[in-house]
Amino acid sequence: MKGITYLQNKLIMKRARGLIRYKFYEQKQQAMDFGISTPAGLEWFGTINGWCTKAVDSLADRIQFDGFENDTFMMREMFDLNNPDIIFDNGILSSLITACCFVYVSRGEDGMPRFQVIDGTNGTGVIDDITELLTEGLAVLERDEFDNVKKYVYYIPGHTYVYEAGNPNPIAEEVTNADYCALVPIIYRPDAKRPFGHSRISRACMDYARSAMRTVKRSEISAEFYSFPQKYATGLAQDAQQMDSWKATMSAMLSFTKDEDGDRPTLGQFQVGSMTPHMDQLKGLASLFAGETGLTLDDLGFATSNPSSAEAIKAAHENLRLAASKAQRCFGVGFINTGFIGACVRDRMAYRRPEVYRTKVLWKPTFEPDMSALSTAGDGLIKISQAIPGYITEERVHRLTGIE
Questions:
Q1: For a designed S-S bond to 138, which of 4, 7, 175, 246 qualifies (C-beta 3.0 to 4.6 A apart)?
Q2: E strands in 2-88
Q3: How much is the pTM?
Q4: Of 143, 183, 181, the residue nearest 151 (C-alpha)
Q5: Per-domain residue ranges for the chain?
Q6: Number of helical H runs and strand E runs in the chain
Q7: 146 and 96 in contact (C-beta within 8 Å)?
Q8: Helix (H) or strand (E) holding 132
């Protein structure tokens, strides 16, 4: 075992990057100003960008849990008793933001398992690369207003220990009857180098979002000069009375008199700057961000030509569909592991992980079928049913089209 100190240090090291991604998702992150085009006194001015939020929500909203296949351990019943509409959505959303979240499995007063989602900034562990279950884990349950840990849980196979900050002895202990920890990771896009996955908010997404915020800030400052162009007057006498700049800008009429030599000042206006370069740069950044996340410019607020049909919309979001399909495969393993640990807690039995290899997670279609798609699917199903009698069943139609 690595020990509690090792896991605490690991959590501190990983937590900082997770909090940065949460700032981008919650639209609280500010971009660093280069100090070149910002006038003195406007250094405090900042802008907000919601592209990272859109990238996460657009994928999370298309991943919808639909049940289990070959549910020999009655996992669906355990999830139904734990508000499945919240458990699945919270787990998927948190995993997309921080690459990994955790589900804390404990035994309720009625003996049934309870599932609690813990975001990736408050949990860590040592993972088994084969089963994607933890052999040792740590989760923070409560923090004070200064972000200091007040209560945390240490997990080892078969046991769970609850600690309070400053107390070396556990205040509670629970026997989970499992060969793995009762802290189950839900991981997005894991690989051999990074078993705890990758965040949907990549470094490129954050860089493009920062650049977009600086572009919007420069356009806001330029808009002030665009709305009120700078004016000038030449030929004024040295002892002429200075006019207030705001009064000169907003006055309906200005009067200038000739001097003793009969000369009068010459008025002029500087050329008005164009807003087009700012919008072109912003659209270019939106194109880069859309390519990174599988979205379209329409998703990011730049109107393009209207798609001709539902099939055209799906074709434009093909990369998003592939990302959703990959995410479903990753999340499916995590939710099956959650149900497996829940079955061990419920039955007080150390089941073997290979016993659930037949269980699969079912998901609703990434794109809901419209009337045109239903008509096309109906013709295809009729032809398949005629060619292979008995192949098209109610369950298979539901899996193919999402129709109840």
A1: 7
A2: 65-69
A3: 0.84
A4: 143
A5: 4-39+54-202+322-368, 372-404
A6: 11, 12
A7: no
A8: none
